[in-house]
């Protein structure tokens, strides 16, 4: 066996398929782009959907990649098995309507067995095939696989619902008798069974059917190849590792964790080894996910990150690590993966800062979780059930990050069990909620070949001109059919030449009109999108009949286009200004460029202050007033990056890119339209800034005329305020407001003093009304106060004066009801708790509450129930 590192293995795979004419696709962001069916990119093919369903035709139908992926459907198994991971790399080769089974199988065998490449022993390789797929079986035999190394398996059919599907062939590596964990006669002891000896290393899917909406399977117009080889598994074979974790992909993190622990070593205790593995795995997933722009939160991707961090922290405590530590592994992950993912190490300081912040937050939560768990343990002992129910176990898991295993460890020492079945029910409910939240969004669209073979030349000339005086119609589509001509109504057309911009990169499509050469209006352009082969596909409202090869004049609405240009150039200025103010970690997370406004989403961990926004706005306007030239050059992506151009990580760029420079201030990859000088933008004004998700902020802004109108509106509003305040001039408004604030504070102070005086008078009266019930002295009644603060003050007075054993006061404040219960300290020692009493009476006001044994409070929405609550308090004391 060759002695290869993980980096060498990855590169060897990619080099092999490059030698077979494949284009190496860079690993895409873990955050899916325009794919609501996925929370994470979970496979190599997930980034290829647009090619397989025909919505985009790749420049080269042969593609290969090493795609970072995240799967989170069985996080609980990570660390406990040899192969489960949250983040992993999927090596893959793909054919989009090009080669099929013979080539895929021949090349797979060559890569695996040729001494030039992997050089594995052919005798150690086994293949499974779908029983009805005899073509695949014959192809394996043809390359030299012995018949007894080919196994037919009914489940070798790849199908995820509507869309491409087909049989597949899995490849297994025999790790030898030393890895055999089953008896010789065990029915699972074969390649493809549930065992440790035969390791699945590659799956080749032959996509040859469309799974139709009616459940039928129809042959695909273009057959595809989709393969997946888990890098971690292949590395474990090359490095003869017992599991994926004893490889160079994970051991550096495990060794660093050993160092942080100080005393515990990997390999000493199987139970503690699980913790090492969890930390190593989760540190990779967390680092990559945050590096790609996801941040910890309570929902979606952010919830997954938070859950992984908390699980790792809990396992760190099992190893004796106290305080934040996970953030120290970020740079280790970056160094391990630097060869193929240099950006991770470059961002390591930023990622580590976020991880440490989340660790600090969880360490505080952990204390609250342990407090709840101890209370639950006490309650189960008191009621003698000795069982933590499933709902409570799930709350510990979902709210406080306690894995059910951790809850079991704590409770077992107390002789208490956990309702694991109930916990699983709650987990399934959560999964159902997640599935419903995703809805019925398709995982992969049905293959549509209508425009795949339409390769008529079509040139976009809108960068330099907004009118084309004479061009031909090359393609007409009506009702999803190619036609030779169209009457009035809606249609889609491709022209030989067009000035209309197709929507892309956040910039909306151009609008305008189509005329015949005599100047008569023929159609209105409603929308423009890219066809699969890149042409600008115009959606039009036809007024006069059109036919293939007819000649027309195309005119873009110049005002609409000009306003879009201004806003697009402003987004570039805004992007760089945000980096200047918040740091280089800030990345564009989306944009929309309309004629009337612009919207810009960006990643930022933390709040954005008004002062920050003023700085950003000032920087952008300074560049506008500086009259910077806006220039564009076309080059290749590598040259563009060397020029310093910013590239969106979520975008894939072709062989030629446009680099847009705004003076020396901004340089970005961009295919959109721009002004020729920043002075044309006129003015930039931010209208709003808000958070739209974990670590993602949104700015909405206007430029030019719209900015002037917005500021004019603000000025008119200020004038109206000045009139209402009777301020002689606008500059006097702040002073007038300050005067009003002083008056308000003075009135509030007087009101508070009057309320306190009134409350004191009521207290003198109510504290005299002592009831003797069941041997206890009770004071209970309603009072008029301004809020819960004054109720607490009355309770403090009651306690200082020692008026009775128990106090119950109620008050209506506006349309709400407030209750407070106080119990003398000596009485609480007898088992009488304020919290128990408040829980008994708060339903009368449609509320709930709690507190300490000697003081509890509640709020409710039913003030008319206060008298009933006071009465219920007397009954509760009577029942003691």
Structural overview:
With 880 residues, the chain is of the alpha+beta class. It has 5 domains: 243 residues, BirA Bifunctional Protein, domain 2 (2-Layer Sandwich), CATH 3.30.930.10; 156 residues, no CATH class; 98 residues, Elongation Factor Tu (Ef-tu), domain 3 (Beta Barrel), CATH 2.40.30.130; 152 residues, Threonyl-trna Synthetase, Chain A, domain 2 (Threonyl-tRNA Synthetase, Chain A, domain 2), CATH 3.30.980.10; 118 residues, Diaminopimelate Epimerase, Chain A, domain 1 (Roll). It contains 23 helices and 35 strands. The strands form 8 sheets. Strands 1, 2, 3, 4, 5, 6, 7, 8 and 9 form a 9-stranded mixed β-sheet that branches. Strand 32 and strand 33 form a beta hairpin. Helix 8 crosses helix 11 and helix 12 crosses helix 14. The longest helix has 35 residues. About 1% of the residues have low confidence.
Would you tell me the structural class of the helices and strands?
A: alpha+beta
pLDDT < 50 stretches: 438-446
> Can you say what the CATH homologous superfamily of the largest domain is?
Bira Bifunctional Protein, Domain 2
Q: Give the mean pLDDT.
A: 90
Looking at the structure, the CATH topology of the largest domain is: BirA Bifunctional Protein, domain 2
The general outline is globular
Main location: cytoplasm
InterPro entries: aa-tRNA-synth_II/BPL/LPL, Ala-tRNA-lgiase_IIc, Ala-tRNA-ligase_IIc_anticod-bd, Ala-tRNA-synth_IIc_core, Ala-tRNA-synth_IIc_N, Ala-tRNA_ligase, Ala_tRNA_ligase_euk/bac, DHHA1_dom
Subcellular location: Cytoplasm
Enzyme class: ligase
């Amino acid at each position: 066996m060759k002695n290869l590192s993980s980096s060498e293995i990855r590169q060897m795979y990619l080099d092999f398929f490059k030698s077979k004419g494949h284009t190496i696709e860079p690993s895409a962001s873990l955050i899916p782009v325009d794919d609501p069916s996925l929370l994470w990119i979970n496979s190599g093919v997930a980034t290829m959907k647009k090619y397989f369903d025909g919505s985009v035709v790749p420049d080269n139908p042969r593609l290969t990649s090493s795609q970072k992926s995240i799967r989170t459907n069985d996080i609980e198994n990570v660390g406990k098995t040899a192969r489960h991971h949250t983040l992993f790399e999927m090596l893959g080769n793909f054919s989009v309507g090009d080669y099929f089974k013979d080539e895929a199988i021949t090349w797979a065998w060559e890569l695996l067995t040729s001494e030039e490449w992997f050089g594995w022993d052919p005798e150690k390789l086994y293949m499974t095939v779908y029983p009805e797929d005899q073509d695949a079986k014959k192809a394996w035999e043809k390359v030299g696989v012995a018949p007894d190394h080919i196994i037919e398996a009914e489940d070798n059919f790849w199908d995820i619902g509507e869309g491409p599907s087909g049989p597949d062939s899995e490849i297994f590596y025999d790790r030898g008798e030393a890895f055999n964990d089953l008896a010789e006669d065990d029915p699972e002891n074969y390649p493809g069974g549930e065992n440790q000896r035969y390791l699945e290393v590659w799956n080749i899917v032959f996509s040859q059917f469309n799974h139709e909406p009616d459940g039928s399977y129809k042959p695909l117009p273009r057959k595809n190849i989709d393969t997946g080889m888990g890098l971690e598994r292949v590395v474990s074979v090359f490095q003869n590792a017992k599991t994926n974790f004893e490889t160079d992909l994970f051991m550096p993190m495990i060794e660093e964790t050993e160092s942080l622990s100080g005393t515990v070593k990997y390999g000493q205790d199987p139970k503690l080894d699980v913790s090492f593995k969890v930390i190593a795995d989760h540190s990779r997933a967390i680092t990559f996910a945050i590096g790609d722009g996801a941040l910890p939160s309570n929902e979606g991707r952010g919830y997954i990150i938070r859950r992984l961090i908390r699980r790792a922290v809990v396992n760190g405590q099992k190893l004796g690590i106290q305080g934040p530590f996970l953030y120290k592994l970020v740079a280790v992950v970056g160094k391990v993966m630097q060869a193929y993912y240099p950006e991770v190490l470059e961002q390591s300081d930023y990622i580590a800062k976020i991880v440490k912040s989340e660790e600090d937050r969880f360490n505080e939560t952990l204390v609250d979780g342990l407090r709840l768990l101890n209370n639950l343990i006490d309650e189960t002992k008191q009621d003698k059930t000795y069982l933590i129910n499933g709902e409570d176990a799930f709350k510990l898991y979902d709210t406080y990050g306690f894995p059910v295993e951790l809850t079991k460890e704590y409770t077992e020492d107390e002789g208490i069990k956990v309702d694991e079945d109930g916990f699983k029910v709650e987990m399934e409910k959560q999964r159902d909620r997640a599935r419903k939240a995703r809805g019925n969004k398709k995982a992969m669209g049905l293959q549509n070949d209508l425009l795949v073979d339409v390769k008529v030349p079509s040139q976009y000339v809108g960068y330099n001109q907004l009118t084309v005086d004479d061009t031909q119609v090359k393609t007409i589509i009506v009702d999803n059919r190619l036609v030779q001509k169209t009457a009035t109504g809606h249609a889609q057309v491709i022209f030989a030449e067009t000035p209309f911009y197709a929507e892309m990169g956040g910039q909306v499509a151009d609008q305008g009109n189509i005329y015949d050469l005599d100047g008569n209006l023929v159609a209105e352009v409603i929308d423009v999108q890219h066809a699969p082969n890149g042409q600008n596909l115009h959606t039009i409202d036809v007024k006069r009949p059109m036919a293939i090869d007819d000649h027309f004049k195309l005119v873009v609405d110049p005002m609409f286009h000009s306003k879009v240009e201004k806003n697009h150039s402003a987004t570039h200025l805004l992007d760089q200004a945000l980096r200047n103010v918040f740091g280089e970690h800030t990345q564009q997370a989306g944009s929309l460029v309309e004629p009337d406004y612009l919207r810009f989403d960006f990643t930022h961990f933390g709040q954005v202050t008004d002062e920050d926004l003023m700085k950003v706005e000032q920087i952008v306007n300074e560049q506008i007033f500086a009259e910077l030239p806006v220039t564009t050059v076309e080059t290749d992506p590598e040259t563009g990056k060397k020029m310093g151009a910013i590239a969106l990580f979520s975008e894939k760029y072709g062989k030629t890119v446009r680099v847009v420079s705004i003076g020396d201030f901004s340089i970005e990859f961009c295919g959109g339209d721009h002004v020729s000088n920043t002075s044309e933008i006129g003015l930039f004004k931010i209208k709003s800034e808000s958070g739209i998700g974990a670590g993602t902020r949104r700015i909405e802004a206007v430029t030019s005329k719209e900015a002037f109108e917005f500021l004019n509106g603000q000025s008119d509003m200020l004038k109206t305020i000045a009139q209402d305040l009777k301020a002689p001039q606008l500059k006097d408004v702040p002073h007038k407001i300050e005067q009003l604030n002083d008056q308000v504070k003075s009135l509030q102070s007087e009101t508070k003093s009057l309320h306190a005086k009134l409350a004191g008078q009521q207290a003198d009266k109510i504290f005299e009304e002592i009831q003797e019930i069941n041997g206890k002295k009770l004071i209970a009644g309603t009072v008029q106060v301004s809020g819960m603060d004054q109720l607490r003050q009355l309770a403090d007075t009651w306690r200082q004066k020692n008026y009775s054993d128990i106090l119950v006061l109620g008050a209506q404040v506006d349309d709400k009801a407030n209750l407070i219960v106080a119990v003398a300290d000596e009485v609480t020692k007898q088992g009488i708790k304020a919290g128990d009493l408040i829980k008994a009476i708060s339903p009368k006001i449609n509320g709930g509450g709690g507190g300490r044994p000697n003081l509890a409070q509640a709020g409710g929405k039913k003030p008319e129930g206060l008298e009933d609550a006071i009465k219920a308090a007397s009954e509760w004391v009577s029942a003691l």
